[in-house]
Known about the structure:
six-stranded antiparallel beta sheet; 8% helix; mainly beta; 17 strands; four-stranded mixed beta sheet; 2 helices
Amino acid sequence: MKKSVYFILSLGLLILTTTPCQAMVLHLSFDKIVEQADVIFVGTVIDQQCRFGPDGKMIFTDVSFSVERLIYAKQESQDKVDGVVTLAFAGGAMGGQAVRVPDVPTFKTGTRYLIFTRMDGKPYASPVVGSYQGVFPIMTDEVSGTSHPLTYRKRPIVEIETESQEFRVWAPIKKIRGGALEKVFETKQVGWKYHEVAPRMVGGPEKGKEARVHPREKEMPQRIMDLDEFIREIDKRVTK
Length: 240
């Protein structure tokens, strides 16, 4: 029988708890995410391997990315990017045990990501800047083929606000087709029943098929940032 074990990192110690807990992650603006990154790249996950740490108890997952585009690397980190980047994340499953570290990102093999990461040789529960805030899954429009970065929670980015450097985002999505954003089908459990929270499609060619729209998310944005536009915003902020 598989055991589920939950950990948080506090002052460098692993503290065992019996229930899931919320880790303390400092929110970072976009310019801070860029500033704290040693390496920024676009890559596809090609392999994930779990292993035990030096103590033989903690599980780590080594996630390997095939680098498609190196956007930025600090001078001392440039020799660490040779076509494949492997990053170690606390948590994983092996030997009949499952370890989960709150707010440490997980990845899907075969998926493209834009990653902001530290590569300074120090151990981290998550080497990604801001724990998960530096992970941007890339979704491709099924009609146009245009790539769009999403936040880790699968929200498309409408713009980066000039003064606050915060992302303005829309609802979580699972598909882009001809500019139409298909929302994630969300449910909430009430007793033993489920009810719909958000519609599956809003806007675009299939707009007429949806009658119910969450009032706070009624209007689909006219456009969302594409990958090239997002990279240009990064280029404005990095020190070459």
